[in-house]
Specification:
The chain is mostly beta strands and 396 residues long. It is 5% helix and 43% strand. It has one domain: Prolyl oligopeptidase, N-terminal domain (Methylamine Dehydrogenase, Chain H). The protein is built from three helices and 28 strands.
Length: 396
């Protein structure tokens, strides 16, 4: 069976799963494979708070820059100029839509820092300082847009540190102590607390991965009160297979996440003591899940990336889980790999990325075709599925 897997840095940079990258050697992936960098459209994107535009990264002639378009693929704009020293990846929009933050990573893939710019590409400036053998990734805005969480990761993938910085680039503060690897972080809805996944090592998302890659990760979810600076654990899994996708669910006092130890199932933990943990989907007969996204308008609706076994390979399709009624509905049949699921902010339509090469690998003898991504948009029930034919403006 053909095997595809998800890189740890893809997970870290995005804060959620963003696709399967076919490594030519799963034990020694190349730096570009680790960061999900390849020719053409990259799968990571973000949507403006008013749902008017999409921002994404594109690799042209070996250089990655940031672009945007409307949700029909029209009105393309290039927001950053190609740079011979730095690639610009993984853009994130601020809550008010005024700014975009992204990671600038050098060609050697051993140094990276955060950059911030106005939504139209003007006012570009460094947010964090470049450091040798450290890469700043996975920015997350506070609800009021005044602060940003990010991970500063060693280039050998051995450790990461959680920081918070003001959007003006001042007051960078380390938020945890100890020799650990922080994998994901999220603000509480009121911005007063930070929730994060911490373990001894990074954990790779277990898409057809072997046990050896997950030994001794010992991951759990922690909460940090920003007023008192007190940190305490919410869970006591010491997870071997990893925890993923911290997401606030249909209640502001409930965190959803995926637990690889529970056959990659959705679980929840209360954000109030005594921090009770439950298996959300134990009553559902669901396939293994690798990503989740919660609707902002209808928070009982959860979109998931679900495993689908095909005769010659493994694919990942979108399903919709209703937390209130218990209904589960498979809504795509692309026989491919879908990732980076996002509900729009003002409707229940879903945008996602699809790696077309997975469908090709399912039918071809070559197990390692190059990734080839495109974006789709659809209603939450799978109707009105349309490709977003994003175009890249080369000269601007």
């Amino acid at each position: 069976m053909k095997k595809f897997l998800h890189s740890v840095f893809t997970l870290l940079i995005c804060g959620s799963l963003t696709g399967c990258f076919p490594f030519t050697n799963i034990f020694e992936p190349t730096p570009d494979e680790i960061f999900g960098i390849h020719d053409g459209l990259l799968p990571q994107f973000d949507v403006a708070p008013d749902d008017s535009r999409i921002v994404f990264a594109h690799n042209s002639k070996g250089t990655v820059s940031i672009h945007s378009s409307d949700l029909s693929g029209n009105d393309p704009k290039r927001l950053t100029r190609p740079d011979k020293r730095w690639d610009h990846i993984h853009p994130v929009w601020s809550p008010d839509g005024a700014h975009i933050v992204f990671t600038a990573i050098n060609k050697g893939r051993d140094s990276g820092h955060l950059m911030i710019m106005n939504a139209d590409g003007t006012g570009l400036r460094p947010l964090t300082k470049p450091g040798k053998n450290r890469i700043d990734i996975s920015p997350v805005f506070s609800p009021d847009g005044k602060h940003i969480l990010y991970l500063s990761v060693t280039s050998d993938l051995s450790r990461s540190t959680l920081f918070m910085i003001s959007t003006d680039g001042t007051r960078a503060e380390r938020l945890h102590t100890g020799d650990h690897a922080v994998q994901e972080a999220a603000f509480s809805p009121d911005g007063k607390k930070v929730y994060f996944i911490r373990g001894r090592q990074f954990a790779l998302n277990p898409k057809l991965f072997t046990m050896e890659f997950f030994e001794d990760k010992e991951q759990d979810i922690y909460v940090l009160d920003l007023a008192t600076r007190k940190t305490e654990p919410l869970t006591s899994f010491t997870s071997i297979f990893g925890l993923f996708n911290l997401t606030f669910g249909n209640r502001p006092d409930t965190l959803l996440f995926i637990n690889g130890d529970e056959s990659t199932k959705i679980m929840s933990v209360s954000t109030n003591p005594p921090y009770e943990t439950n298996g959300i989907d134990k009553k559902f007969l669901l396939p293994p899940l690798y990503e989740l996204a919660v609707s902002r308008r209808s928070p009982d609706l959860v979109a998931v990336s679900a495993e689908q076994s095909l005769p010659s390979c493994m694919a990942y399709e979108i399903g919709i889980l209703n937390l209130r009624t218990g209904q589960y509905l498979a809504v795509t049949d692309l026989q491919s790999d879908v990732s980076n699921l996002r509900f729009l902010n003002k409707s229940d339509r879903i945008i996602f990325a699809e790696d077309q090469s997975v469908a090709g690998m399912c039918s071809a003898e070559d197990e390692f075709m190059k990734p080839s991504y495109r974006f789709w948009i659809m209603n939450a029930d799978g109707t009105d599925l349309r490709e977003i034919p994003v175009r890249v403006k080369q000269n601007q």
